[in-house]
Amino acid sequence: MITVLRHILAPILTLSLPDIAAAAPTPNDVPEAEDMLNSLQQPIDLRDVDAFIQTANGLDMRVDYHIAHGHVIIAVRLDEDGTGVTRLTLNQRVLVAQELVGGEVIAEGTAFGALTEQEAHLLAASVYQVWDHDLAFKVPVDTEGLLCSVAAGLSTLTIAAGVFSGCELATATTGTAACIGLGVQIGAATGAIVHDKCTGAQN
User: Fold this and answer.
1) How crowded is the C-beta side of 157, counted as CA atoms within 13 Å?
2) How many domains does the chain have?
């Protein structure tokens, strides 16, 4: 699935929310894109939200918080030329990971298979909503763009995988192709919004 996501994401990033809502027809049991977006925006309980950033010898950012199913950590560790890794963990289990070289993603993967539909949805919603909390951090101007692009990329992949996984479980795999499309569309739309929220957290 990840290979499919990587090759389809770029053109979809330019879609508006109405474009996404009007996407190709899907099986009756697959949620509409607009409904899924609305569900990700429904407030959830995020506790002990904290952010840390260090810019000496590269970029080291960590956002951590608790949801009903445990402790979530979003971590970015890059050296000065943008080479490094990003990870999202739940209770110390790596669920999403990306490897970057020169600021470009060269490898990525997800591990949502062990999650329930509710867990997948809650995790995706948390990644989208955590940027609405009072996260405030300062980074050098020349690093700001990279930081928010990387954070948005990890969020895009996490939300796409979470939406796909939840959709698959809800439809008993009968809507696989439609669920992939839904995940890609929602991931791209929310990833662009996360980029804006990240930028706002530095102003």
Assistant:
1) 27
2) 1
Other beta carbons within 10 Å of 11: 9
Contact 163, 34 (CB under 8 A): no
Q: Which domain holds residue 148?
A: 2-201
Tracing tokens 């990306």 back to the chain, one arrives at 98
The two structure tokens encoding residue 121:
């949805």
DSSP 133-189: S-------HHHHHHHHHHHHHHHHHHHHHHHHHHHHHHHTTTTHHHHHHHHHHHHHH
Host H or E run for residue 75: strand 70-78
Render pLDDT for 150-201 as a digit per residue (tens, 0 to 9).
888 888 999 999 888 888 877 776 667 888 888 888 888 888 888 887 777 6
Q: Is the pTM of this model over 0.85?
A: no
Q: Please report, to the nearest 10 degrees, the dihedral formed by the alpha carbons of residues 28, 117, 115, 182 taken in order.
A: 40
Three-class SS state of 94 = strand
For 106, 138, 150, the CA distances from 144, given in Å and listed in that order, are: 21, 8, 10
